[in-house]
Write a structure and sequence with these properties.
The protein is built from 14 helices and nine strands. It is α/β, with parallel strands linked by helices. The longest helix is centred in the C-terminal third of the chain and has 38 residues.
Amino acid sequence: MELTILMPCLNEAETVGICVDKALAFLRRTGVDGEVLIADNGSSDGSPAVAESRGARVVPVRERGYGAALSGGIAAARGRYIVMGDADDSYDFSRLEGFLDELRNGADVVMGNRFKGGIQAGAMPALHRWLGNPLLSYIGRRLFRIQVNDFHCGLRGVNAQSIRALNLRTPGMEFASEMVVRAALEGLKVVEVPTSLSPDGRSRPPHLRTWRDGWRHLKFLLTYSPRWLFLYPGIGFLSLGLIITALLFPGPLWLGGIGLENKTFMAGCLCLLVGVQSIAFSLLVRRYASRQGYLPRHRRYAHFLDNLTLERLAVVALVLFFLGGCGVAWCFFKWWGAFFGPFDSPVATRLMVFSISILAAATQILLAAFLGAIMDVGKEIQDR
């Protein structure tokens, strides 16, 4: 069989029959060998019976959620290609030629683009149309270097073999983002085709919740990009901290009529600590994610990440402990020379603050090293 037209369904009795009719009409008109598959997610309004009476095959999916329903449908699909879309009559299943043509030409994922194909009045809330979808799509393009302009279009086509190999996991609405992100990370061919969006035909409110599901999509995008969540902010904080401490260590710095002294120096040391912690998190998370299989191994830095062992990081921490300890000892001996009395030395004050920051950074690295070792224990148990 060449094509499965898949629809997730939860209480869509009003519209699922219309969608099935349109999908079967497309198969008859084009002569494509295919099926219409309904992944029912626990409907209580008779949706499965309506779909079967119109000629669709129905598979029940017990785990609740949009992503869970689609995952169950993908597993049960018989077609070489799958085109999936909501069963609310907002997408036109009678016009799927663009999706099928791209799949036949070797695309692994074919995304619909509603902004290019046309959005009818009332089909999409203004907040989604002008802010939510464009913003999240822009973030997705920036984080994963993929040219998809409508990340959350519900009508999309996939190569069944390619999509099953991704082992998609999210059960909720963020499944839409996971599919695109994982395809991009694995180097699959992702293309877009225009598609239209009409007002859905249901009399009840949609399952989508604007702020809850928007946050879940954003959280997913950040979770799958340790570079942007941890590494780049960490490098920024670390660089800022180094610049501030280097400029102010010799003494106050005047910019016009503004004087930068010890308080600014302390802020620079705080930036150093935040940067070290954030970079440590990025390295540990990236290694853990690739070992657990939800991110691919990094092409250039996999060997480096594998060598971030507890022992090597402990050596780095010990070197920093030594340097920070030397700075603290120097300040202590200077204070001793003043017989532990009043000791007004701006240089010693800055050195003490910087040395304590180095000791704190060493502690962060050592604790991060043990955290990484604990995370590796789970992988070792799985490997057995």
